[in-house]
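@channel sequence for tomorrow's demo:
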Amino acid sequence: MNLKPARLLIALIAAVAAPAFAQNLAVVNGKAIPSSRVDAVVKQVVAQGQQPDSPQLREAIKKEMIGREVLMQEAEKQGYAKNADVKAQLENARQAIFINALVGEYVKKNPVKDADIKAEYDKFVAQTGNKEYHVRHILVETEAEANAVIAKLKGGAKFEELAKTSKDTGSAANGGDLDWATPSSFPKVFSDAFVALQKGQVTEKAVQTPNGFHVIKVDDVREAKLPTLDEVKPQIADALTQKKLQAYQEELVKKAKVQ
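C-alpha coordinates (generated this afternoon):
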Protein backbone atom coordinates (compact mmCIF):
# COMPACT_ATOMS: atom_id res chain seq x y z
CA MET A 1 0.00 0.00 0.00
CA ASN A 2 2.82 2.36 0.86
CA LEU A 3 4.50 1.70 -2.49
CA LYS A 4 1.64 2.94 -4.64
CA PRO A 5 2.05 6.69 -3.90
CA ALA A 6 5.78 6.38 -4.59
CA ARG A 7 5.18 4.65 -7.92
CA LEU A 8 2.57 7.24 -8.84
CA LEU A 9 5.03 10.03 -8.03
CA ILE A 10 7.72 8.42 -10.19
CA ALA A 11 5.26 8.05 -13.10
CA LEU A 12 4.23 11.68 -12.85
CA ILE A 13 7.85 12.84 -12.82
CA ALA A 14 8.61 10.68 -15.86
CA ALA A 15 5.57 11.98 -17.75
CA VAL A 16 6.57 15.58 -17.16
CA ALA A 17 10.24 15.03 -17.86
CA ALA A 18 9.84 12.97 -21.04
CA PRO A 19 8.73 15.81 -23.36
CA ALA A 20 11.66 17.94 -22.23
CA PHE A 21 14.19 15.23 -23.15
CA ALA A 22 12.33 14.53 -26.39
CA GLN A 23 12.86 18.12 -27.47
CA ASN A 24 16.63 17.67 -27.53
CA LEU A 25 18.60 15.74 -30.10
CA ALA A 26 21.50 15.43 -27.69
CA VAL A 27 23.29 17.33 -24.93
CA VAL A 28 27.00 17.95 -25.61
CA ASN A 29 29.07 19.15 -22.65
CA GLY A 30 25.90 20.54 -21.12
CA LYS A 31 24.82 22.29 -24.35
CA ALA A 32 21.50 21.05 -25.77
CA ILE A 33 20.98 20.49 -29.49
CA PRO A 34 17.23 20.86 -30.24
CA SER A 35 15.55 18.05 -32.19
CA SER A 36 13.89 20.77 -34.28
CA ARG A 37 17.24 21.29 -36.01
CA VAL A 38 17.15 17.74 -37.32
CA ASP A 39 13.57 18.18 -38.47
CA ALA A 40 14.53 21.33 -40.38
CA VAL A 41 17.49 19.65 -42.12
CA VAL A 42 15.45 16.53 -42.94
CA LYS A 43 12.71 18.70 -44.42
CA GLN A 44 15.25 20.51 -46.60
CA VAL A 45 16.94 17.29 -47.77
CA VAL A 46 13.61 15.65 -48.63
CA ALA A 47 12.34 18.79 -50.40
CA GLN A 48 15.45 18.83 -52.59
CA GLY A 49 14.82 15.21 -53.54
CA GLN A 50 18.20 14.03 -52.26
CA GLN A 51 16.74 11.15 -50.24
CA PRO A 52 13.57 10.24 -48.32
CA ASP A 53 13.08 10.69 -44.59
CA SER A 54 14.37 7.62 -42.75
CA PRO A 55 15.94 6.58 -39.43
CA GLN A 56 19.28 6.24 -41.20
CA LEU A 57 19.09 9.80 -42.52
CA ARG A 58 18.16 11.17 -39.10
CA GLU A 59 20.98 9.24 -37.44
CA ALA A 60 23.48 10.60 -39.98
CA ILE A 61 22.25 14.16 -39.38
CA LYS A 62 22.41 13.63 -35.62
CA LYS A 63 26.02 12.46 -35.89
CA GLU A 64 26.88 15.46 -38.07
CA MET A 65 25.28 17.93 -35.66
CA ILE A 66 27.04 16.47 -32.63
CA GLY A 67 30.33 16.74 -34.50
CA ARG A 68 29.58 20.35 -35.44
CA GLU A 69 28.64 21.22 -31.86
CA VAL A 70 31.91 19.79 -30.57
CA LEU A 71 33.86 21.86 -33.09
CA MET A 72 31.78 24.95 -32.29
CA GLN A 73 32.49 24.63 -28.58
CA GLU A 74 36.20 24.22 -29.24
CA ALA A 75 36.20 27.30 -31.52
CA GLU A 76 34.52 29.35 -28.79
CA LYS A 77 37.01 28.03 -26.24
CA GLN A 78 39.87 29.21 -28.44
CA GLY A 79 38.39 32.72 -28.71
CA TYR A 80 37.23 32.80 -32.33
CA ALA A 81 34.16 34.79 -31.32
CA LYS A 82 36.47 37.79 -30.95
CA ASN A 83 38.21 37.27 -34.31
CA ALA A 84 37.58 40.23 -36.69
CA ASP A 85 37.22 38.02 -39.80
CA VAL A 86 34.79 35.71 -38.03
CA LYS A 87 32.73 38.69 -36.86
CA ALA A 88 32.56 40.03 -40.43
CA GLN A 89 31.42 36.64 -41.76
CA LEU A 90 28.81 36.37 -39.03
CA GLU A 91 27.44 39.78 -39.98
CA ASN A 92 27.30 38.75 -43.65
CA ALA A 93 25.47 35.55 -42.70
CA ARG A 94 23.09 37.52 -40.49
CA GLN A 95 22.28 39.90 -43.35
CA ALA A 96 21.73 36.98 -45.74
CA ILE A 97 19.28 35.32 -43.35
CA PHE A 98 17.25 38.52 -42.86
CA ILE A 99 17.29 39.35 -46.58
CA ASN A 100 16.22 35.84 -47.57
CA ALA A 101 13.33 36.04 -45.12
CA LEU A 102 12.28 39.45 -46.47
CA VAL A 103 12.58 38.35 -50.10
CA GLY A 104 10.66 35.12 -49.46
CA GLU A 105 7.79 37.00 -47.87
CA TYR A 106 7.77 39.65 -50.63
CA VAL A 107 7.61 36.99 -53.36
CA LYS A 108 4.81 35.22 -51.51
CA LYS A 109 2.76 38.43 -51.31
CA ASN A 110 3.63 39.58 -54.84
CA PRO A 111 3.50 36.47 -57.05
CA VAL A 112 4.04 36.66 -60.79
CA LYS A 113 0.70 36.42 -62.60
CA ASP A 114 0.00 33.94 -65.38
CA ALA A 115 -1.06 36.84 -67.61
CA ASP A 116 2.36 38.46 -67.17
CA ILE A 117 4.10 35.18 -68.02
CA LYS A 118 1.96 34.81 -71.17
CA ALA A 119 2.71 38.39 -72.23
CA GLU A 120 6.45 37.81 -71.77
CA TYR A 121 6.24 34.58 -73.79
CA ASP A 122 4.37 36.32 -76.60
CA LYS A 123 7.04 39.02 -76.66
CA PHE A 124 9.73 36.34 -76.88
CA VAL A 125 7.96 34.65 -79.80
CA ALA A 126 7.55 37.97 -81.62
CA GLN A 127 11.22 38.88 -81.14
CA THR A 128 12.47 35.43 -82.06
CA GLY A 129 10.41 35.06 -85.22
CA ASN A 130 8.87 31.95 -86.70
CA LYS A 131 11.80 30.97 -88.93
CA GLU A 132 15.26 29.51 -88.44
CA TYR A 133 18.13 30.06 -90.86
CA HIS A 134 21.13 27.89 -91.61
CA VAL A 135 23.74 30.58 -92.18
CA ARG A 136 27.38 30.70 -93.26
CA HIS A 137 29.66 33.73 -93.24
CA ILE A 138 33.13 34.88 -94.17
CA LEU A 139 34.61 37.55 -91.90
CA VAL A 140 37.36 39.86 -93.22
CA GLU A 141 39.08 43.00 -92.01
CA THR A 142 38.07 45.54 -94.66
CA GLU A 143 35.19 46.28 -97.01
CA ALA A 144 37.55 45.95 -99.96
CA GLU A 145 38.44 42.39 -98.89
CA ALA A 146 34.73 41.57 -98.53
CA ASN A 147 34.00 42.93 -102.02
CA ALA A 148 36.82 40.82 -103.39
CA VAL A 149 35.27 37.72 -101.78
CA ILE A 150 31.87 38.56 -103.30
CA ALA A 151 33.49 38.97 -106.73
CA LYS A 152 35.17 35.56 -106.44
CA LEU A 153 31.87 33.95 -105.47
CA LYS A 154 30.17 35.48 -108.50
CA GLY A 155 33.04 34.08 -110.56
CA GLY A 156 32.24 30.55 -109.42
CA ALA A 157 34.40 30.11 -106.33
CA LYS A 158 32.98 27.87 -103.60
CA PHE A 159 31.86 29.63 -100.42
CA GLU A 160 33.20 26.85 -98.21
CA GLU A 161 36.67 27.13 -99.71
CA LEU A 162 36.87 30.92 -99.37
CA ALA A 163 35.61 30.64 -95.78
CA LYS A 164 38.87 28.92 -94.80
CA THR A 165 40.52 32.36 -94.82
CA SER A 166 37.82 33.89 -92.57
CA LYS A 167 38.89 35.82 -89.46
CA ASP A 168 36.29 33.81 -87.55
CA THR A 169 38.52 30.83 -86.82
CA GLY A 170 35.69 29.09 -84.98
CA SER A 171 33.68 28.61 -88.17
CA ALA A 172 36.39 28.86 -90.86
CA ALA A 173 37.28 25.18 -90.71
CA ASN A 174 33.59 24.30 -91.22
CA GLY A 175 33.12 26.44 -94.30
CA GLY A 176 31.89 29.41 -92.28
CA ASP A 177 28.99 27.37 -90.87
CA LEU A 178 27.05 29.12 -88.06
CA ASP A 179 24.48 26.31 -87.84
CA TRP A 180 20.72 26.78 -87.47
CA ALA A 181 19.62 29.84 -85.52
CA THR A 182 16.89 32.43 -85.28
CA PRO A 183 17.52 36.05 -86.34
CA SER A 184 17.39 37.20 -82.70
CA SER A 185 20.58 35.21 -82.05
CA PHE A 186 22.62 37.67 -84.13
CA PRO A 187 23.26 41.42 -84.16
CA LYS A 188 20.37 43.14 -85.94
CA VAL A 189 22.45 44.48 -88.82
CA PHE A 190 23.71 40.92 -89.44
CA SER A 191 20.28 39.25 -89.21
CA ASP A 192 18.58 41.96 -91.29
CA ALA A 193 20.98 41.08 -94.08
CA PHE A 194 20.34 37.34 -94.17
CA VAL A 195 16.55 37.38 -93.62
CA ALA A 196 16.32 39.26 -96.91
CA LEU A 197 18.02 36.37 -98.72
CA GLN A 198 16.48 33.31 -100.30
CA LYS A 199 17.86 29.80 -99.86
CA GLY A 200 21.29 29.57 -101.50
CA GLN A 201 21.74 33.33 -101.91
CA VAL A 202 24.74 35.42 -100.81
CA THR A 203 24.76 39.06 -99.70
CA GLU A 204 25.48 41.46 -102.58
CA LYS A 205 27.17 43.93 -100.22
CA ALA A 206 29.45 43.52 -97.23
CA VAL A 207 27.78 43.67 -93.83
CA GLN A 208 29.71 45.61 -91.21
CA THR A 209 29.69 44.79 -87.50
CA PRO A 210 32.18 45.69 -84.74
CA ASN A 211 34.03 42.45 -85.63
CA GLY A 212 34.68 43.44 -89.24
CA PHE A 213 32.99 42.92 -92.62
CA HIS A 214 30.87 39.84 -93.36
CA VAL A 215 29.85 38.05 -96.51
CA ILE A 216 26.78 35.96 -95.63
CA LYS A 217 25.15 32.97 -97.29
CA VAL A 218 21.83 31.30 -96.41
CA ASP A 219 22.02 27.53 -96.85
CA ASP A 220 18.44 26.82 -95.85
CA VAL A 221 15.32 28.16 -94.09
CA ARG A 222 12.78 26.29 -91.97
CA GLU A 223 9.98 26.86 -89.47
CA ALA A 224 11.39 27.67 -86.04
CA LYS A 225 10.99 25.01 -83.35
CA LEU A 226 10.20 27.27 -80.42
CA PRO A 227 9.55 25.89 -76.93
CA THR A 228 5.94 25.92 -75.78
CA LEU A 229 4.72 28.22 -73.01
CA ASP A 230 4.52 25.30 -70.57
CA GLU A 231 8.12 24.32 -71.31
CA VAL A 232 9.56 27.75 -70.50
CA LYS A 233 6.99 28.93 -67.93
CA PRO A 234 9.25 28.26 -64.89
CA GLN A 235 12.16 30.17 -66.42
CA ILE A 236 9.95 33.11 -67.40
CA ALA A 237 8.37 33.18 -63.93
CA ASP A 238 11.80 33.20 -62.32
CA ALA A 239 13.03 36.01 -64.59
CA LEU A 240 9.95 38.13 -63.86
CA THR A 241 10.33 37.47 -60.13
CA GLN A 242 13.93 38.70 -60.29
CA LYS A 243 12.72 41.85 -62.08
CA LYS A 244 10.18 42.46 -59.33
CA LEU A 245 12.81 42.03 -56.65
CA GLN A 246 15.20 44.35 -58.47
CA ALA A 247 12.52 47.03 -58.74
CA TYR A 248 11.62 46.57 -55.06
CA GLN A 249 15.26 46.98 -54.02
CA GLU A 250 15.73 50.04 -56.21
CA GLU A 251 12.62 51.64 -54.70
CA LEU A 252 13.96 51.05 -51.18
CA VAL A 253 17.32 52.52 -52.16
CA LYS A 254 15.58 55.66 -53.49
CA LYS A 255 13.77 56.13 -50.18
CA ALA A 256 16.88 55.48 -48.10
CA LYS A 257 19.07 58.28 -46.80
CA VAL A 258 22.46 57.40 -48.26
CA GLN A 259 25.35 59.68 -47.28
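heads up for whoever presents: The chain is about 60% helix and 15% strand.
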